[in-house]
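Homework help board

Subject: predicted structure for assignment chain

Our instructor gave us this sequence and asked us to write out the predicted structure in token form, then describe one feature. I got the tokens but I'm not sure how to describe them. Can anyone check?
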Amino acid sequence: MRWSWRIATVAGIPVYLHGTFLLLVAFLFLRDLGTGAELAAAVRGVLFLLAVFATVLLHEFGHALAARHYGIRTKDITLLPIGGLARLERLPDVPRQELWVALAGPAVNLVLAAGTYLAGTLIGDVGALRVDPAGGGALERFITVNLWLAIFNLIPAFPMDGGRALRALLAERYEYSRATEVAASLGQGLALVFGFLGLFANPFLLFIALFVWMGATAEASMVELRSSLLGIPVSDAMITEFHVLEAGDALQRAADLVIAGSQQDFPVLEGGRLVGVLTRDALVRAVSARGLDMRVRDAMTSVFQAVGERDLLDAAFTRLQEGPCPVLPVLRDGTLVGLLTAENVGEFVMIRSALRRARAAPRPAAP
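My token output:
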């Protein structure tokens, strides 16, 4: 994610902090000072916020470690002002596994709340809990925040954990795409409720409503896209008219091809063998550093993935999303025969959807 910086690596999982999180800390600190709070009180407010986001990080590690139990790697975790995001390399194959992965995050918050309450009771430093997270002492507020995080995330609608748990339960009886559609619809309905309440109560609910709506819509669209790719070979969707570069070409040729056409990324051959990929971003960086006379072999990346033309499109699309390059060369017996990009996969799905609608539409009656 752009504007994010790695701050740690825990259990082999990179942890990133988004720049907007620092803006949130600065805003709350200056707000407290602006309302007349002493410097020490403003600092305590920032420290409490950091403690809350430490629990958010533990929440995300709950998901990550539960996924690891089922052999699923977590790419990274990013802390955002609205919470955390753990990116799994793939969804669990079994609905019941997705259920436990989804519930692991809220379970961490409940354990933290219970543990803090028990510790506070033993030392006699915890009073009555309040519904308002802003009330009470630091321990009461910390417990209340964790309870609210668990409750909020257990709402059965996307993109909250409760929505994923609901989908997992529905997927045991219905198709995965249908289960996702139901959970996403609940998420969009919840977004409308939050938006309506935000107009008359807390404006922050409008921001949450936008986040929920976008998350639910994106999840439904992605699952629909993946389901539409099932059982289709790569050869049906690959680009067959494309340009290639030789490793010894000057970058001038790549720049001319980018300007003259719509192709942005180029497979690189040497002696008829695929040896690399020159992406548009790499081209721009190389031209900025050394000019158009630089050789393609010095600017290309040799770290890329390729697929066979008979590979299944849904698996290839997953590799395309997770791979280091925005293009997948397609091979037939080691020979380059096509390219696969996210854009042409999207166009392929769009055409197939239009054809399905045309076949389903009622035909006009014969005169």
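Reply (TA_rk): Your tokens look well-formed. For the description, you could write something like this. The chain has a mean pLDDT of 80. That's the kind of observation they're looking for.
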